[in-house]
Design goal:
Largest sheet: 2 strands, antiparallel
Order of helices and strands: HHHHHHHHHHHHHHHHHHEEHHHHH
Number of strands: 2
Strand order of the largest sheet: 1-2
Strand content: under 5%
Number of helices: 23
Distance between the termini: 7 Å
Shape: globular
Radius of gyration: 22 Å
Amino acid sequence: MHIRSIIRIVGILVALFSVTMLAPALVAYIYRDGGGLEFFSAFVICLILGVGLWFPNRSHSKELRAKEGFLIVVLFWTVLGSVGAIPLMLSAEPALTVAEAFFESFSGLTTTGATVISGLDTLPKAILFYRQMLQWLGGMGIIVLAVAILPILGIGGMQLYRAEIPGPVKDNKVAPRIAETAKTLWYIYLVLTIVCAILLWLAGMNLFDAICHAFSTIAIGGFSTYDASIGHFSSPLINLIIVVFLMIAGVNFSLHFAAFANRGLRLSVYRLDPEVKVFIGVQLVLALICMGVLLAYRVYQDPLQALDQALFQAVSISTTAGFSTTGFAEWPLFLPVLLMLASCIGGCAGSTGGGIKVVRIMLLNLQGMRELKRLVHPRAVYRIKLGNKALADRVVEAVWGFFAAYALVFVVCMVALLATGMEELTAFTAVVATLNNLGPGLGEVAANFGSTTDAAKWIMILAMLFGRLEIFTLLVLFTPAFWRS
């Protein structure tokens, strides 16, 4: 294990991240409502830390192996989430404890969207912008952005890319070189963000809110600049725009690249992809169920209003964004529980969504069907196909392994939260919200996580990391085999 090379790389990445602190400092200068000094101080601290890690190890440059890539990714997210809490700890408004500052930072960076802050409407613009920016950086994975720069610094990037990109299939690159892959993904990500911000601005948001909510929409994050979230705007048009872009961001980004690869839109790329069809189908079915139940229970009298609320909440929760237009926890209990469980599916592989991922659920279903067929015809040979492509048994085994690890982490986190004194429904949905990078839960954490104990916050931070790093990337560090040379 090339420890000094790893420290050198982490130092470079922390120094690069420090530059992002200047953006909220600029926002503070523009709006003159506070926060500028805290972010400039955080920039200096992060820069010194990054240089301090890099300078003593600057001459140690080794080729990365797969295990170094995993360790760097875990270290980077841990260190980045920690230094990201610095401006929140320095800020007088909001006045956060260490545990709360770390929770908010990790929640933003992992695009979880769970918050311990109330009174967002009156916070300095710099703090609000910073929270949204953290989600935007974390949405696609700041590591992917960094690998576009690391080759220039003499650091290979393929191992980082494989450890960071979500989903069961990680070797499909949209460009021949890893640096080009990262750049292409971020160009797509940036263009979608700009288009979303413009449309939200034209729909009635002011420019600041439009940019901030575009950040969290494309990242499928869920942070807002208001306590009432998207419900603050009370606009069906804004709701629809966010729904459309959540759906776009929930699709594999390599499909977006393929759709526009030849200087023209090829919708057949989406139409022929089996994962996309299931993903869209899940959203539509959930929306129809929600609408039917809301009308049956007379929560809304107007069918159009019921459709607007049902569609928004179904897409927002099931894609793991966590935006809200209403207190969906107050709906008939069947609906919030259904939507929370749907968030376990999440978005497509290679998207900014959380959860298990649609393709894994599809493979689990196909494997289950194959076992049922084998009970009837024990000697028959059945191959699992995704679309027209037969999959190797190794892929199916990996998916089952992921599901087992996911279930184990879920149970351990829930038991740990119960041990802190949290009641059952709150503990269950808190794990769903953090492990799936969703945000809102039910019970005591329906609107805010500020009432939870510090011990519970640290447990949920760990769950966020497990969810963002897709379980195995973090779990592999706890195996003795990983540390053997």
